[in-house]
Amino acid sequence: MTDDADLQRAVANEFSALADLLDGISDAEWDTPSLCEGWRIREVVAHFTMAARYSEEQFMARLRECEFDFTRLSNEIARSDAELAPAELVANLRSDVMRQWIPPGGGYHGALNHVVIHGLDATVPLGVPRHVPEETMRVVLNDLTAGGGHSNFGIDIEGRGLRATDLDWSYGSGAELRGTGEDLALMICGRTLPAGRVEGDPL
């Protein structure tokens, strides 16, 4: 996966796969606490599909109202838009806007990391089988480690070895943490996983 065309297809595929999966859960399951502290599945999906509902002008107007505090705006939109019907949130996941979306300054690498991690934030607590394609998972893991993405989450991987148990990927050396590619990515992003999903000292 070496160019924007490949990455964009991977982004689109992740949004589609997540939409298909969440389209089959009950209304009560939408209220399941996600891996994002304080957010249910509803808030997570409402958060990372903002671009499907707000134009750039609308988003910037809301951001100005929040004194350019993106965290505040993100929380406000997640809380309010989480009340949308699940069918609408699923439709947002399938939106052509999201399939082409890139975060400011992040490119398609940023978009791919966003949809993969937040998708796992939703599916892991549901206990729903969801395996990210190996090639996609390698891109995300490389972005989070060699690409320096871990620093965005305050996670220190210096002196640690990371080894995926379900694909041919490893990083670094030292005290080893082992788990699926998905679970390692979540650990690098500072998520707390259910007990027994990884082996070794946490990051």
Offer a few descriptive terms:
203 residues; Maleyloyr_isom; isomerase; isomerase activity; single chain; DinB/YfiT-like; metal ion binding
Would you kindly provide a brief summary of this structure?
One of its GO terms (molecular function) is metal ion binding. It contains ten helices and three strands; from the N terminus they run H-H-H-H-H-H-H-H-H-E-E-E-H.
First-last Cα distance:
28 Å
Radius of gyration: 17 Å
Strand content: 5-15%
Stretches where pLDDT falls below 50 for ≥5 residues? none
State the order of secondary-structure elements, H for helix, E for strand: HHHHHHHHHEEEH
Number of contiguous helices: 10
Total beta strand runs: 3
- Tell me the helix content: 40-55%
Global geometry: globular
The biggest sheet, with number of strands, parallel, antiparallel or mixed sense and barrel status, is: 3 strands, mixed
pLDDT average, as an integer? 93
Structural class: mainly alpha
Strand neighbour order, sheet with most strands: 2-1-3
InterPro entries: DinB/YfiT-like, Maleyloyr_isom, MDMPI_metal-binding
Protein name: Maleylpyruvate isomerase family mycothiol-dependent enzyme
Organism: Rhodococcus opacus
Keywords: Isomerase
Structure overview:
The chain is mainly α and 203 residues long. 52% of the residues lie in helices and 6% in strands. It has helices spanning 4-22, 41-48, 50-53, 56-65, 70-81, 86-93, 96-100, 107-126, 134-144, 181-188, and strands spanning 160-164, 170-171, 175-179. The chain has a three-stranded mixed beta sheet with strand order 2-1-3. β1 and β2 (170-171) form a beta hairpin. α8 (107-126) packs across α9 (134-144) and α9 packs parallel to α10 (181-188). The chain is globular and about 45 Å long. The two termini are 28 Å apart.
